[in-house]
Amino acid sequence: METGMINTTTAATATATQTATAKNSLDKDGFLKLLVAQLQNQDPTGAGQDPNQMVQQLTSFSSLEQAQQTNTLLTGLQAQTSGLFQAQTASLVGRNVKVDGSGFNLKSGLATMNLELSAAANVTVTVKDANGNILSTLPQGHLARGLTALTWDGRDANGNPVPDGAYKVEVTATGDDGKPVTFRTSLTMKVDAVTFKDGGIYLASGGNVFSLADVLEITA
Fold first, then answer.
1. What's the chain's Rg over C-alpha atoms?
2. Which entry of 23, 83, 99, 175 is 20 to 30 Å from 48 by CA?
3. Domain membership of residue 11 as a residue range
4. Nearest CA to 183 among 119, 100, 112, 92?
5. Under 8 Å CB-to-CB from 97, ≥6 apart: which residues?
6. What's the N-to-C CA distance of the chain in angstroms?
C-alpha cells in the first residue's frame, strides 16, 4: 500500500512539473494560437472594448510574421554565402600556402620548414619520428633575426636515408646572452585538397591536414 501511495505521489508530482513547464514556456506556435484566439473573441465595436488594443494585437501579429519571413531569408542567405565561400576556397587546390605549424614533410629526400626569429640566435633543430625517437640533430649555427628556411636531406644521424613522410621537429634558439629567443615556425605546402567538415575548412597536402584558420600566406 505504501508503495502504491509513493507511486501515485510521484506521478502527480511529475504531472504537475510538466504542467508548470508547459505554462512557463510559450513557443512561436503557442504565441500565434493565443493571439489568434484573442482576435477571434474580440469585437472592437462592442461595448467596453478598446479598439486600440485590437490594433496593437494586429500589429504584433504582423510583426511576428515579418520576423519569421526575415529569419527564413537570412537562413537562405547564410546557405548561399557558405556555398560561395566553399567554392572560393576550393580554388586553393594547387596553390602554395604558408601555414602556422612545425615539422618536416619529407619527399624525395628533401624537407623544408620556415623559422622566424625575433632576434639573432644560435639554433639547433632536432628531428624525431612519430614515436618521439630522435633521428637527427641539425645545428644551424648563428642565424640572423627574421625569416630563414630550414632544410633536411632526409638522413638520420648515421647518414642513412629515412622513408618519405611527416616528421616532428623541435627547435632550440638561444641568444648570445644564453637566454631563449622567441620564434615562430611555419610550413610552405602545395594544397592537394580542400575538405569541409563539421563547419570547418581544412587543407590537405602530402598527408598533412591544416585548418584554413592556420593559413598565414597564399602564393601562386
1. 33
2. 23
3. 2-38+51-89
4. 119
5. 188, 189, 191, 203, 215, 216, 217, 218, 219
6. 82
